[in-house]
Amino acid sequence: MSTPSDKHIPVLLSEVVQGLAVIGGGVYVDGTFGYGGYTKAILSAADCRVVAFDRDPAAIAGGQDIVADSAGRLNLVHACFSTMGEHLAPASVDGIALDIGVSSMQIDEADRGFSFRQNGPLDMRMSSDGETAADIVNLTGEKDLARIIYEFGEEKASRRVASAIVARRRERKFETTGDLASVVRSVVRASKDGIDPATRTFQGLRIAVNDELGELDRGLLAAERLLKPGGRLAIVSFHSLEDRRVKHFLRDRSSENAGSRHLPAPVSRRAPSFRLVSRKAIVPGDDETRRNPRARSARLRIAERTDAPVREATA
Known about the structure:
By secondary structure, the chain is an alpha/beta fold. It has helices at 4-7, 13-20, 37-45, 57-62, 64-69, 104-108, 133-139, 142-153, 158-169, 177-187, 199-210, 212-226, 240-253, 286-291; strands at residues 27-30, 49-54, 74-78, 93-99, 227-237, 274-276, 299-305. Strands 3-2-1-4-5-7-6 form a 7-stranded mixed beta sheet, sandwiched between helices. Helix 3 (37-45) links the parallel strand 1 and strand 2 (49-54). Helix 2 (13-20) crosses helix 3, helix 9 packs across helix 10 and helix 12 packs parallel to helix 13. The longest helix is centred in the C-terminal third of the chain and has 15 residues, at 212-226. The protein is globular, with a radius of gyration of 21 Å. It starts with a helix and ends in a 10-residue tail after the last strand.
């Protein structure tokens, strides 16, 4: 009998594995295990070891069969990828793969409350603790609610959406995804490209609930500390907020810190801690987006660690 993981199609899979340049005897991190697609491909590429992380207890439970089949080569850790530095020694890892954002496992299950296409409890938590999307929608002031939807969802009509949410919750609290989506659709026009009007509001709430951008920033710093010289970092992101952060981090780390032309010359330059393997983001081809429409917005960036010290002070 097939399982959801059998049907799952990892985004840019071959590009990620090739980008990591997997070698026998190497140690690799899959920071966002999910259904284990990247982990299985890395383990198949060479006789190496993988330490995989996921904060979702459902992913950890679902991955035990892969652990059992790995002949001791997979260690599955229930934790955020930003904490990988607590589980691994500095400069001990040959490659790190990160697939940022919500996983197919979470979108496909209505009970997780991520999807506006299926009705479910307004939750959106990737882990099993912390505040839910319902907590934010029902308890946050209108101004802060508009800020969350604007900054994290990039919704231009954020004030209108926040006002409609506050007006509706005076009558009764929001409990379901369908309830929230209906209110958002009532005040945001449908776009010509067919994107659902609730998309950006749901994205903003999901990022706030899970502190996704903070998790990404911490994960990038941890990757810089963990990778050996020559180790590779491969990051797949799905929207501009994430990709912009990754691009700026790698641009900063791959150039000498020469200071500003408006300031006195720095006493010393700092050597680049990363080398860009590809200057431009790698995107899925037509065939992949046809087979897997969720891949259409994916961006992959790959960089190689140098032997220079970390640059934590400039993060």
